[in-house]
Design a protein that fits this description.
Number of helices: 12
Number of strands: 15
Structural class: alpha/beta
Helix content: 25-40%
Shape: globular
Strand content: 15-25%
Order of helices and strands: EHEEHEEEEHHEHEHEHEHEHEHHEHE
Radius of gyration: 19 Å
C-alpha cells in the first residue's frame, strides 16, 4: 500500500515521503481499516516537527483522525494507533474506540466530526458549562478547531464572536454563523470585543491559539467568565497571571480531550451521540474546505502548518474507492 512516512523531524513538506510499504498488522484489540478520508489536524504538524507531546517512533505515518471502513464494510470514525496513521491507504485502530460514522455526513465531513467537535463539545459543555444567552468568543474561528466551536456555540444558543486573521477568513467566519467577526490584523481585538459586549466581555473564551490570543482573552473575559485552553497553534505557551484571575474572578480551564478516551470512554460515546444528532438535524456541519488525493497530502499538511487554510483539509485516498 501507499503511505506517507516521516523519517526525521522537520517541516511537513520536507520530511514527509510517500512510500510503498506493507499493510500494517493489527495488534491485540486492534482492527485494520481502509482509509476513506483522513483529516489534517495541527497535531499532525507538531508530530512532524517533533514538538507534540506524543512522539511516535520514526518512521511513522501521521494522520490522527479518519473515517475508515472495516473488513465487514462498516463506516467508522477512528483515531489511528500510531505509528500507523491515516495518511495511507490502510491504518490500524483500537476496536473498542471505533465510533459509527453519521449517515448524514460524507466521508470527509464524518472524519472531521471527531477530534475538533469532540474537543469543542467537551470544552464548551463539560468544562465551561456554556449556557444559552451567553457570549462565546472563539479565537481562530475559521480554522478546523475554531469552526467547530462556532457551530457548537450557535447550536447551544450563544452569541458568538469570532476572531480571525484576514478578510478571507472573516468571510468564512460569517458564513459559519458568527454574530460578530473581528479581523485581528485590521482591528483592536480588545476594543472590538468590549464594544460588541457593551463593556461586559465574553462569558466563555475558546482558545486554541495561545500567545497573544490568550493575553487578549484575559482582558476581555467577563465577570465569572471561563477561558478554555485547548491548544497553542501560535507556538507560544502563555504563563497566566493567577492574581489577575483572582482579581477579575474568572476561571482558566484546560482541556486535553484525548484523556477522556482512557479516563471516561463512555462520555466520549455520549458526546458522539450528541454530535450525531446535531449533524442529523443540520445544526452542525463540518467545514471541509479542501479534499486532496493521497499524493498531495504533504503539501496540504504544510498549508495547515502555515496557517493559510480554513476549516478542515481532507486527504481522500483513491477518492474513497477500493484499494
Amino acid at each position: 500500500m501507499q503511505a506517507w512516512q516521516v523519517h526525521e523531524n522537520g517541516e511537513p513538506s520536507e520530511v514527509m515521503r510517500l512510500a510503498d510499504i506493507e499493510r500494517p498488522t493489527p495488534g491485540d484489540g486492534q482492527v485494520l481499516l481502509r482509509v476513506r478520508a483522513a483529516n489534517i489536524n495541527f497535531p499532525d504538524v507538531l508530530m512532524a516537527r517533533g514538538h507534540y507531546q506524543v512522539r511516535p517512533p520514526l518512521p511513522f505515518t501521521p494522520g490522527v483522525e479518519i473515517c475508515g471502513e472495516t473488513e465487514d464494510g462498516r463506516r467508522v470514525l477512528a483515531t489511528p494507533a500510531l505509528p500507523h496513521g491515516g495518511f495511507a491507504e490502510y491504518a490500524v485502530a483500537d476496536a473498542a474506540a471505533l465510533l459509527p460514522a453519521p449517515d448524514s455526513l460524507d466521508d470527509a465531513e464524518a472524519a472531521a466530526l471527531h477530534i475538533g467537535y469532540q474537543t469543542g463539545w467537551f470544552g464548551l459543555h463539560r468544562r465551561a458549562g456554556l449556557q444559552a444567552g451567553e457570549t462565546l468568543l472563539v479565537h481562530a474561528a475559521a480554522g478546523g478547531v475554531g469552526s467547530a466551536a462556532v457551530q457548537l456555540g450557535k447550536a447551544a444558543g450563544a452569541t458568538v464572536i469570532g476572531v480571525v486573521g484576514g478578510p478571507d477568513k472573516a468571510a468564512v467566519a460569517r458564513e459559519l454563523g458568527c454574530d460578530v467577526v473581528i479581523d485581528r490584523r485590521a482591528e483592536d481585538v480588545i476594543a472590538a470585543v468590549k464594544e460588541a459586549t457593551g463593556g461586559r466581555g465574553a462569558d466563555v473564551v475558546y482558545d486554541p491559539v495561545g500567545g497573544e490570543a490568550y493575553a487578549q482573552s484575559a482582558k476581555v473575559v467577563a465577570f465569572e467568565g471561563r477561558i478554555v485552553v485547548v491548544g497553542f497553534a501560535s507556538g507560544t505557551i502563555p504563563s497566566p497571571s493567577l492574581n489577575h484571575a483572582l482579581v477579575k474572578n474568572y476561571a482558566i480551564l484546560g482541556l486535553h480531550w484525548g484523556l477522556y478516551n482512557t479516563k471516561n470512554p463512555k462520555l466520549v460515546r455520549h458526546c458522539h451521540e450528541q454530535l450525531t444528532d446535531l449533524a442529523a438535524r443540520g445544526a452542525i456541519k463540518p467545514l471541509v474546505s479542501e479534499r486532496v488525493p493521497l499524493a498531495e497530502a504533504a503539501a496540504a499538511v504544510q498549508r495547515v502548518a502555515d496557517g493559510v487554510t480554513t476549516g478542515r483539509v481532507a486527504v481522500v485516498p483513491q477518492n474513497g474507492a477500493a484499494v
